[in-house]
Amino acid sequence: MKIPNKYANLVFAFTMSLLMALIMSGVLTALFAGIDHQFISHWLRAFIHAWPIAFPAVLIIAPIVKKIVGLVTE
After folding, report:
1. Can you tell me the distance from the alpha carbon of 71 to that of 74, in angstroms, rounded to the nearest whole number?
2. Do 11 and 3 form a contact (C-beta atoms < 8 A)?
3. What is the mean pLDDT of residues 34-46?
4. 21, 54 in Cβ contact below 8 A?
5. How confident is the model at residue 14 (pLDDT cuts 50, 70, 90)?
6. DSSP symbols for 16-60
7. What is the per-residue pLDDT across 44-67, written as a single tens digit (0 to 9) for each?
8. Cα–Cα dist 5/25, whole Å
9. Which sequence spans correspond to the domains of the chain?
């Protein structure tokens, strides 16, 4: 079953924010806390805090970025 196209922006924001928050929280956790036996729990805790910020940010910023890209590309 596919999601209707009218929800494409929400699916994009959900997926983009999920992946970006997962990657960034993992990288920053590794840099600042190190990789040890508690890395996964620290990473997941950071992700849980980051994703609720990332999701609305992508919803707000993506249309702005699309306009900017449209201005600088042919």
Report:
1. 8
2. yes
3. 97
4. yes
5. very high
6. HHHHHHHHHHHHHHHHHH-SSTTHHHHHHHHHHHHHHHHHHHHHH
7. 999 999 999 999 999 999 999 999
8. 30
9. 5-72
